[in-house]
Amino acid sequence: MAGVEVVLPYLIEGAALIALAAGAAALWGKRAQTHAREAARAQDAAHAAALAQAQAHHTAQQEDAAREHESLAAQIESLRAELAQRRSVADALEAALASERAQRDDAMQHAARIASEASRLKLMSSTFERWHEQMISLMAQNNDMHKKNQELSSIVSHVLIVSLNASIEAARAGAAGRGFSIVAGEVRSLATRSQELSKSYRDSLNRNDLITAATFQDIQAGGKMIAATLASVEASTQQLHHQLEATRAGALA
Protein backbone atom coordinates (compact mmCIF):
# COMPACT_ATOMS: atom_id res chain seq x y z
CA MET A 1 0.00 0.00 0.00
CA ALA A 2 2.82 2.26 0.81
CA GLY A 3 4.20 1.70 -2.69
CA VAL A 4 0.92 2.65 -4.25
CA GLU A 5 0.77 5.77 -2.25
CA VAL A 6 4.23 6.63 -3.42
CA VAL A 7 3.43 6.00 -7.09
CA LEU A 8 -0.01 7.56 -7.07
CA PRO A 9 1.21 11.17 -6.96
CA TYR A 10 3.42 10.49 -9.94
CA LEU A 11 0.55 8.90 -11.76
CA ILE A 12 -1.69 11.82 -10.99
CA GLU A 13 0.99 14.25 -12.07
CA GLY A 14 1.53 12.21 -15.24
CA ALA A 15 -2.16 12.19 -15.92
CA ALA A 16 -2.30 15.91 -15.37
CA LEU A 17 0.61 16.36 -17.71
CA ILE A 18 -1.06 14.13 -20.24
CA ALA A 19 -4.30 16.02 -19.82
CA LEU A 20 -2.43 19.29 -20.12
CA ALA A 21 -0.62 18.01 -23.17
CA ALA A 22 -3.89 16.84 -24.63
CA GLY A 23 -5.47 20.24 -23.95
CA ALA A 24 -2.47 21.96 -25.42
CA ALA A 25 -2.64 19.66 -28.42
CA ALA A 26 -6.33 20.31 -28.72
CA LEU A 27 -5.75 24.05 -28.44
CA TRP A 28 -2.96 23.83 -30.99
CA GLY A 29 -5.18 21.81 -33.27
CA LYS A 30 -7.92 24.41 -32.95
CA ARG A 31 -5.42 27.17 -33.66
CA ALA A 32 -4.05 25.19 -36.57
CA GLN A 33 -7.55 24.72 -37.88
CA THR A 34 -8.22 28.41 -37.40
CA HIS A 35 -5.00 29.27 -39.21
CA ALA A 36 -5.91 26.77 -41.92
CA ARG A 37 -9.37 28.27 -42.25
CA GLU A 38 -7.90 31.77 -42.33
CA ALA A 39 -5.34 30.64 -44.90
CA ALA A 40 -8.13 29.00 -46.93
CA ARG A 41 -10.19 32.16 -46.60
CA ALA A 42 -7.21 34.25 -47.63
CA GLN A 43 -6.57 31.91 -50.56
CA ASP A 44 -10.25 32.03 -51.50
CA ALA A 45 -10.15 35.82 -51.29
CA ALA A 46 -7.01 35.84 -53.42
CA HIS A 47 -8.67 33.48 -55.90
CA ALA A 48 -11.79 35.63 -55.89
CA ALA A 49 -9.69 38.76 -56.42
CA ALA A 50 -7.76 37.05 -59.19
CA LEU A 51 -11.00 35.80 -60.70
CA ALA A 52 -12.52 39.27 -60.42
CA GLN A 53 -9.40 40.75 -61.98
CA ALA A 54 -9.49 38.14 -64.71
CA GLN A 55 -13.17 38.80 -65.27
CA ALA A 56 -12.51 42.55 -65.33
CA HIS A 57 -9.66 42.02 -67.80
CA HIS A 58 -11.86 39.75 -69.89
CA THR A 59 -14.66 42.28 -69.77
CA ALA A 60 -12.23 45.03 -70.78
CA GLN A 61 -10.97 42.84 -73.63
CA GLN A 62 -14.55 42.15 -74.70
CA GLU A 63 -15.32 45.87 -74.60
CA ASP A 64 -12.15 46.61 -76.62
CA ALA A 65 -13.06 43.86 -79.05
CA ALA A 66 -16.60 45.25 -79.32
CA ARG A 67 -15.23 48.75 -79.98
CA GLU A 68 -12.78 47.36 -82.55
CA HIS A 69 -15.63 45.39 -84.13
CA GLU A 70 -17.79 48.50 -84.25
CA SER A 71 -14.90 50.51 -85.71
CA LEU A 72 -14.20 47.77 -88.25
CA ALA A 73 -17.90 47.55 -89.11
CA ALA A 74 -17.99 51.34 -89.54
CA GLN A 75 -14.90 51.19 -91.78
CA ILE A 76 -16.45 48.36 -93.81
CA GLU A 77 -19.68 50.33 -94.16
CA SER A 78 -17.71 53.41 -95.20
CA LEU A 79 -15.77 51.34 -97.73
CA ARG A 80 -19.02 49.90 -99.03
CA ALA A 81 -20.50 53.37 -99.37
CA GLU A 82 -17.35 54.63 -101.11
CA LEU A 83 -17.35 51.60 -103.40
CA ALA A 84 -21.02 52.17 -104.23
CA GLN A 85 -20.29 55.84 -104.93
CA ARG A 86 -17.32 54.94 -107.15
CA ARG A 87 -19.42 52.34 -108.93
CA SER A 88 -22.13 54.94 -109.46
CA VAL A 89 -19.55 57.39 -110.80
CA ALA A 90 -18.10 54.66 -113.03
CA ASP A 91 -21.57 53.81 -114.34
CA ALA A 92 -22.24 57.49 -114.99
CA LEU A 93 -18.90 57.84 -116.78
CA GLU A 94 -19.58 54.73 -118.82
CA ALA A 95 -23.04 56.04 -119.74
CA ALA A 96 -21.51 59.41 -120.66
CA LEU A 97 -18.85 57.69 -122.77
CA ALA A 98 -21.51 55.57 -124.48
CA SER A 99 -23.58 58.67 -125.16
CA GLU A 100 -20.48 60.47 -126.44
CA ARG A 101 -19.63 57.51 -128.69
CA ALA A 102 -23.17 57.48 -130.04
CA GLN A 103 -23.05 61.24 -130.63
CA ARG A 104 -19.64 60.90 -132.29
CA ASP A 105 -20.90 58.09 -134.52
CA ASP A 106 -23.98 60.12 -135.37
CA ALA A 107 -21.78 63.13 -136.09
CA MET A 108 -19.52 60.99 -138.29
CA GLN A 109 -22.51 59.73 -140.23
CA HIS A 110 -23.81 63.28 -140.49
CA ALA A 111 -20.39 64.42 -141.73
CA ALA A 112 -20.39 61.60 -144.28
CA ARG A 113 -23.84 62.68 -145.50
CA ILE A 114 -22.65 66.28 -145.70
CA ALA A 115 -19.59 65.18 -147.66
CA SER A 116 -21.83 63.20 -150.02
CA GLU A 117 -24.11 66.20 -150.48
CA ALA A 118 -21.04 68.36 -151.05
CA SER A 119 -19.91 65.98 -153.79
CA ARG A 120 -23.33 66.17 -155.39
CA LEU A 121 -23.24 69.94 -155.16
CA LYS A 122 -19.83 69.91 -156.83
CA LEU A 123 -21.26 67.84 -159.66
CA MET A 124 -24.19 70.24 -159.94
CA SER A 125 -21.78 73.15 -159.89
CA SER A 126 -19.82 71.55 -162.74
CA THR A 127 -23.10 71.02 -164.61
CA PHE A 128 -24.06 74.66 -164.09
CA GLU A 129 -20.66 75.76 -165.32
CA ARG A 130 -21.12 73.63 -168.43
CA TRP A 131 -24.59 75.12 -168.96
CA HIS A 132 -23.13 78.57 -168.46
CA GLU A 133 -20.57 77.96 -171.18
CA GLN A 134 -23.23 76.48 -173.47
CA MET A 135 -25.51 79.46 -172.89
CA ILE A 136 -22.67 81.82 -173.75
CA SER A 137 -22.09 79.82 -176.95
CA LEU A 138 -25.84 79.86 -177.69
CA MET A 139 -26.01 83.63 -177.23
CA ALA A 140 -23.03 84.02 -179.54
CA GLN A 141 -24.78 81.85 -182.12
CA ASN A 142 -27.95 83.94 -181.76
CA ASN A 143 -25.95 87.10 -182.41
CA ASP A 144 -24.42 85.47 -185.47
CA MET A 145 -27.86 84.40 -186.69
CA HIS A 146 -29.13 88.00 -186.19
CA LYS A 147 -26.32 89.26 -188.38
CA LYS A 148 -27.03 86.65 -191.07
CA ASN A 149 -30.76 87.40 -190.94
CA GLN A 150 -30.00 91.09 -191.34
CA GLU A 151 -27.88 90.27 -194.39
CA LEU A 152 -30.70 88.07 -195.74
CA SER A 153 -33.21 90.84 -195.13
CA SER A 154 -30.95 93.28 -196.94
CA ILE A 155 -30.63 90.84 -199.88
CA VAL A 156 -34.40 90.30 -199.98
CA SER A 157 -34.98 94.06 -199.96
CA HIS A 158 -32.51 94.44 -202.81
CA VAL A 159 -34.22 91.61 -204.73
CA LEU A 160 -37.57 93.35 -204.23
CA ILE A 161 -36.14 96.55 -205.60
CA VAL A 162 -34.64 94.68 -208.57
CA SER A 163 -37.93 92.86 -209.21
CA LEU A 164 -39.84 96.16 -209.13
CA ASN A 165 -37.39 97.71 -211.57
CA ALA A 166 -37.70 94.63 -213.78
CA SER A 167 -41.47 94.87 -213.71
CA ILE A 168 -41.29 98.56 -214.68
CA GLU A 169 -38.91 97.79 -217.54
CA ALA A 170 -41.11 94.90 -218.68
CA ALA A 171 -44.16 97.16 -218.67
CA ARG A 172 -42.30 99.67 -220.79
CA ALA A 173 -41.34 96.93 -223.25
CA GLY A 174 -45.01 96.08 -223.82
CA ALA A 175 -45.79 92.76 -225.46
CA ALA A 176 -42.13 91.90 -225.91
CA GLY A 177 -41.48 92.11 -222.20
CA ARG A 178 -44.50 90.13 -221.09
CA GLY A 179 -42.52 86.97 -220.28
CA PHE A 180 -39.90 89.00 -218.45
CA SER A 181 -42.73 90.66 -216.50
CA ILE A 182 -44.03 87.26 -215.37
CA VAL A 183 -40.57 86.26 -214.18
CA ALA A 184 -40.17 89.55 -212.38
CA GLY A 185 -43.52 89.00 -210.68
CA GLU A 186 -42.50 85.56 -209.48
CA VAL A 187 -39.21 86.96 -208.22
CA ARG A 188 -41.08 89.73 -206.42
CA SER A 189 -43.46 87.15 -204.91
CA LEU A 190 -40.53 85.01 -203.72
CA ALA A 191 -38.77 88.08 -202.37
CA THR A 192 -41.94 89.12 -200.48
CA ARG A 193 -42.30 85.65 -198.99
CA SER A 194 -38.61 85.66 -198.07
CA GLN A 195 -39.02 89.04 -196.44
CA GLU A 196 -41.96 87.80 -194.38
CA LEU A 197 -40.00 84.68 -193.47
CA SER A 198 -37.00 86.81 -192.47
CA LYS A 199 -39.25 88.98 -190.32
CA SER A 200 -40.74 85.89 -188.65
CA TYR A 201 -37.28 84.49 -188.21
CA ARG A 202 -36.15 87.78 -186.64
CA ASP A 203 -39.09 87.73 -184.24
CA SER A 204 -38.26 84.15 -183.30
CA LEU A 205 -34.64 85.13 -182.71
CA ASN A 206 -35.76 88.06 -180.53
CA ARG A 207 -37.95 85.75 -178.43
CA ASN A 208 -35.10 83.27 -178.29
CA ASP A 209 -32.83 86.08 -177.09
CA LEU A 210 -35.24 86.92 -174.28
CA ILE A 211 -35.56 83.26 -173.21
CA THR A 212 -31.81 82.75 -173.52
CA ALA A 213 -31.05 85.90 -171.51
CA ALA A 214 -33.52 84.90 -168.75
CA THR A 215 -32.17 81.33 -168.69
CA PHE A 216 -28.61 82.65 -168.62
CA GLN A 217 -29.43 84.87 -165.64
CA ASP A 218 -31.15 81.97 -163.84
CA ILE A 219 -28.15 79.72 -164.48
CA GLN A 220 -25.79 82.41 -163.20
CA ALA A 221 -27.90 82.95 -160.06
CA GLY A 222 -28.23 79.17 -159.50
CA GLY A 223 -24.50 78.70 -159.97
CA LYS A 224 -23.75 81.44 -157.47
CA MET A 225 -26.21 79.95 -154.97
CA ILE A 226 -24.70 76.49 -155.41
CA ALA A 227 -21.18 77.90 -155.04
CA ALA A 228 -22.17 79.75 -151.84
CA THR A 229 -23.96 76.66 -150.48
CA LEU A 230 -21.02 74.46 -151.37
CA ALA A 231 -18.61 76.82 -149.59
CA SER A 232 -20.86 76.84 -146.51
CA VAL A 233 -21.17 73.04 -146.56
CA GLU A 234 -17.42 72.59 -146.91
CA ALA A 235 -16.81 75.04 -144.04
CA SER A 236 -19.36 73.20 -141.87
CA THR A 237 -17.79 69.87 -142.79
CA GLN A 238 -14.31 71.08 -141.86
CA GLN A 239 -15.57 72.55 -138.58
CA LEU A 240 -17.37 69.30 -137.76
CA HIS A 241 -14.24 67.28 -138.53
CA HIS A 242 -12.17 69.58 -136.28
CA GLN A 243 -14.69 69.17 -133.47
CA LEU A 244 -14.69 65.40 -133.87
CA GLU A 245 -10.89 65.29 -133.85
CA ALA A 246 -10.79 67.49 -130.74
CA THR A 247 -13.38 65.27 -129.03
CA ARG A 248 -11.45 62.13 -129.97
CA ALA A 249 -8.20 63.64 -128.70
CA GLY A 250 -9.89 64.60 -125.41
CA ALA A 251 -11.31 61.08 -125.02
CA LEU A 252 -7.91 59.51 -125.64
CA ALA A 253 -6.27 61.89 -123.15
TrEMBL record:
<dbReference type="InterPro" id="IPR004090">
    <property type="entry name" value="Chemotax_Me-accpt_rcpt"/>
</dbReference>
<dbReference type="Pfam" id="PF00015">
    <property type="entry name" value="MCPsignal"/>
</dbReference>
<keyword id="KW-0807">Transducer</keyword>
<keyword id="KW-0175">Coiled coil</keyword>
<keyword id="KW-1133">Transmembrane helix</keyword>
<keyword id="KW-0812">Transmembrane</keyword>
<feature type="domain" description="Methyl-accepting transducer">
    <location>
        <begin position="40"/>
        <end position="253"/>
    </location>
</feature>
<comment type="similarity">
    <text>Belongs to the methyl-accepting chemotaxis (MCP) protein family.</text>
</comment>
<feature type="transmembrane region" description="Helical">
    <location>
        <begin position="6"/>
        <end position="28"/>
    </location>
</feature>
<feature type="coiled-coil region">
    <location>
        <begin position="62"/>
        <end position="110"/>
    </location>
</feature>
<dbReference type="InterPro" id="IPR004089">
    <property type="entry name" value="MCPsignal_dom"/>
</dbReference>
<protein>
    <submittedName>
        <fullName>Methyl-accepting chemotaxis protein</fullName>
    </submittedName>
</protein>
<keyword id="KW-0472">Membrane</keyword>
